[in-house]
Amino acid sequence: MTFEKYYSQDEVVNLTQDLVRIPSHKDVPTREKEVAEYIYRYCRENGLEAEMQNVDGVRKNVNIYLKGQGRGKTILFNGHTDTVPPYQMIIDPYKAEVKDGYLWGRGSNDMKGAVACMITAALALKRRGEKLPGDVIVSAVVGEEEKSEGTEMLVMSGIKADGAIVGEPSNYEYAIGHRGLEWLEIKFYGKAAHGGVPDEGLNAISMASKFIEEV
Fold it and tell me: Any idea which residues carry the catalytic annotation?
C-alpha cells in the first residue's frame, strides 16, 4: 500500500507548526481547548469524521474515525495535545521555526508532531479512497502531562480497539508496553512523647520509611 502521493511532507510540517503555535499547557486558562478546536476544524474541513469529546467542560478530546469494511480489527492511534510550559526556553517556544532540518518549538517533539503525523496518515487513507477491513481511530487527548484525564475519558466513553499505538517520543525505539499508574494518598499517624521517654511515642516518619522500603 503506497501513500506518498496522498500527502506531502510540507503538509505534515505545516500542521505541526500550526499546533505548536497554539499554547496548551497548565498555565493557559483554557488549557487544550483552542488546539482541540483547531484539530476538529482541520479534520472536518478536510473530510474526516471527527467529534469533540468533553472532558471537564472546557477541555476536549478530539476523536477521528475512519470506518472500515466491518470485517477486520480496529486500530487506535493515541496522542496528547497538552505540553509542559515553556519554562526558560532560549528560543521562542511558539514560533515553530524550521531550522537545520528540525522544527523547533514547545511540543514539536512531545507530542504535537506525532499528532500531526497521525492526522495526516488518516487523511492519506481517506484520500486513497479504499476502505480497510477494520476501523481506524485517532484520538487527540488532553492531560497526559499530569493525570491522563483525556485517555481515561476515552476509555470510560466505551470506545473499543483491538490494538493501540501511542506516538510518544521514544528515541526511535519501539515500546510494547508501559508501567501502570496509581495515585495513592497514605497517612501515617504517630504519637507524641517527651524526648526523655521516646519509647512511649510512635514515629510516623519511621513508619512511612519502612512502608516505602517495602513498596
Answer: 82, 144
User: Is the CB of residue 205 less than 8 Å from the CB of residue 211?
Assistant: no
Give the helix ranges, DSSP H, for the chain: 9-20, 33-45, 113-128, 149-156, 204-214
Residue 7: exposed, middle, or buried by beta-carbon count in 10 A (0-12, 13-18, 19+)? middle
Structural domain span for residue 215: 184-215
Residue 1, pLDDT above cutoff 70: no
Burial class, 113, CB count within 10 angstroms (exposed 0-12 / middle 13-18 / buried 19+): buried
Q: What confidence tens digit (pLDDT) does each residue in 72-113 have?
A: 999 999 999 999 999 999 999 999 999 999 999 999 999 999
Residue 185: all three cell numbers together? 494518598
Q: Which residues contact 208 (CB under 8 A, 6 or more apart)?
A: 186, 188
Judgement on whether residues 106 and 151 belong to the same structural domain of the protein: yes
Q: Hey, which residues does 2 pair with through a beta bridge? A: none
Prediction pTM value: 0.85
**Do 58 and 153 reside in the same domain of the chain?**
yes
The backbone torsions φ and ψ at residue 121, rounded to the nearest 5 degrees and listed phi first, read -65, -40
- The domain total for the chain is 2
